[in-house]
Specification:
Blueprint lengths: L11 H6 L11 H7 L12 H13 L4 H14 L1 H10 L1 H8 L3 H7 L1 H4 L6 E4 L6 H6 L8 E5 L16 H14 L6 E7 L5 H4 L14 H18 L4 E4 L4 H11 L5 E3 H21 L8 E4 L3 H16 L4 H6 L1 E5 L2 E2 L24 H8 L3 E4 L9 H10 L4 E4 L11 H7 L5 E4 L6 E3 L2 E3 L2 E2 L6 H11 L6 H13 L3 H5 L10 H18 L11 H6 L12
Parallel strand pairs: 1-3, 2-3, 2-4, 4-5, 6-7, 6-9, 9-10, 10-11, 11-14
Antiparallel strand pairs: 7-8, 12-13
């Protein structure tokens, strides 16, 4: 998977301008002569190691995170192999730049900082031509597509076409985190307009300046896109990303059994959260079936986590009804209860028989949860009173403040550890620095979807699975939780270090592929050694020889 050869007939300048083939000053003298580019480069020949040092020196001179993001995206445009090498070798440092939280700022500024397209833009008025437009993408062996319509970018809301930074960032993590060649990855923006008045009035905004298309017209656009992918890139996995609640659940249900697809906000977030909870159970010698989970936020991320927890509890013998009873939700109207009218479909399984409760603190006091999970996008909602109440109820309260970016987190790591006297087990969606309480230093774990989707994608792609199942996410969560070491636990971490993500992704991919073969979903013959088979397909960022 992913061998790179230069097509015949390309001119020297075309080679240097193509980020897939370009090696910059790492072209050897023999390659320069053979390719006709010896007069187009300075005489010095650099190794990829020397180029990496130069890149990092430039990177560290950038004064802001946004400047670092722009620099890395420029490198991506120039030299894919070098970009991937730098990212693989410095992933823990660069993850907050290419993804949350900096990618949120980049999306807000996307139209202003736009340099060149890095994916395919499918505008509503081009309906009827989507297959044709997909064929314009230079890569012909696309294996994974990340698509968004920009309606719910992180916790920032409707950013329209400026949300394209999210699919690009996700696919960077597929390449760095799982070794899926970037030229087999395709970011897609489906532009159906935006309801963000600021963007519509912005002269720099690069998307359609119209209100969002809704209803049957919207569904027809998505249907054409999905069917066009089946026609043009039949081996591609489709990852839905940052769609609004109005559409996300419905699209997942519509397509999950028709094509190879998943929704990362619903299923990926659920998977990494379940892995963190499973690790917390190991650390505290507790059982998942004995916990009471209280969520702040009842959108796609929250109910996605709830449903995967239910699946995990059912797997160990609990009835589905009892499993749902372990999960409670608070939304903008208070506790989700049976007596409330006009509940959205995805909330109904979690609407339990209880008197109305107006706010989150009151719900904590009434339900006495062992775990609180924030997926609301509302900064500071896990305030001092909430956290101190959790600490009074529990010896080791579990606090997951998962909203992204950092400015949207329900609480900071410092607040969580301080207001629970260092007794909590904490995880966040965005990174936080270590916290020292009474001489003990805690390293907060980041429940980042990057632990999950690259490995799931790798397993699906390697096995050419027809569908992505709930069981695959359960297997991925179990596998990730197993990677947390005793050394991680000693610092309070519920996730392994991000710099081990390629090995984590390999383990997850093996678990996912195993299920695909066992369930008859694979479209390739089962190899004798699944791990070796998958590992052989992981791209290593080294330059090929063109001489």
């Amino acid at each position: 998977m992913g061998n790179i050869t230069i097509p015949k007939g390309l001119t020297g300048q075309e080679i240097l301008n193509d980020n897939l083939y370009n090696k910059g000053m790492a072209f050897t003298n023999a390659e320069r002569i053979a390719l006709g580019i010896d007069g187009l480069l300075p005489p010095m020949v650099s190794t990829i190691e020397e180029q990496e040092v130069r890149v990092m020196d430039n990177y560290h001179q950038k004064s802001t995170n946004l400047a670092k993001y722009i620099f890395l995206m420029s490198l991506l445009d120039q030299n894919l192999t070098l970009f991937n090498r730098v990212l693989v070798n410095h992933l823990e440092e660069m993850m907050p730049i290419i993804y949350t939280p900096t990618v949120g700022e980049a999306c807000q500024q996307y139209s202003f900082i736009f340099r060149r397209p890095q994916g395919v833009f499918l505008a509503a008025h081009e309906k009827g031509r989507f297959a044709e437009l997909l064929r314009q993408w230079p890569g012909k062996d696309v294996r994974v597509i990340v698509v968004t319509d920009g309606e719910r970018i992180l916790g920032l809301g409707d950013l329209g076409t400026s949300g394209m930074g999210i699919p690009v960032g996700k696919l960077c993590l597929y390449a760095a985190g799982a070794g899926i060649p970037f030229h087999q990855c395709l970011p897609v923006m489906i532009d159906v307009g935006t309801n963000n008045a600021e963007f519509i009035n912005d002269p720099y905004y690069i998307g359609l300046k119209q209100e969002r298309i809704r209803g049957k017209a919207y569904d027809a656009i998505i249907e054409e896109f999905v069917m066009a992918v089946q026609e043009v890139f039949p081996k591609a996995l489709i990852q839905f990303e940052d769609f609004g609640n109005l559409n996300a659940f419905r699209l997942l249900e519509n397509y999950r059994n028709r094509v190879c697809t998943f929704n990362d906000d619903i299923q990926g977030t659920a998977c990494v959260s379940l892995a963190g909870l499973s690790a917390a159970m190991r650390l505290t010698n507790r059982k998942l079936q004995d916990q009471t989970f209280l969520f702040l936020g009842a959108g796609e991320a929250g109910t996605g986590i709830g449903e995967l927890i239910v699946s995990a509890l059912v797997k160990i013998g609990m009835s589905a009804d009892n499993a749902h009873q372990r999960c409670w939700f608070v939304d903008s109207k208070g506790l989700v209860v049976q007596s409330r009218e006009n509940l959205a479909d995805h909330k109904i399984p979690f609407a339990h028989d209880h008197a109305p409760v107006p706010d989150f603190l009151s719900a904590v006091q009434a339900l006495k949860p062992t775990v609180i999970i924030g997926v609301s996008g509302q900064a500071g909602k896990f305030d001092k009173q909430v956290l101190q109440t959790m600490a009074a109820i529990n010896e080791q309260p579990i606090i997951f403040a998962l909203s992204n970016p950092t400015i949207k987190a329900e609480c900071t790591a410092n607040e969580a550890y301080t207001w629970t006297e260092g007794r909590c087990l904490f995880s966040s969606g965005s990174p936080f620095d270590p916290v020292t309480i009474d001489g003990k230093t805690f390293t907060p774990g980041q429940g980042n979807n990057a632990y999950i989707f690259p490995g799931v994608g790798l397993g699906v792609i390697a096995s050419q699975a027809k569908h992505v199942t709930e069981g695959m996410f359960l297997a991925a969560a179990e596998t990730l939780a197993e990677q947390v070491s005793e050394a991680d636990f000693e610092t309070g971490r519920l996730y392994p270090p991000l710099n081990t993500i390629r090995q984590i992704s390999l383990h997850i991919a093996v678990a996912v592929a195993e299920l695909a073969f066992e369930e008859g979903l694979a479209r390739v013959e089962r190899p004798d050694d699944i791990k070796a088979f998958i590992q052989s397909q992981m791209f290593e960022p080294q330059y090929p020889s063109y001489a």
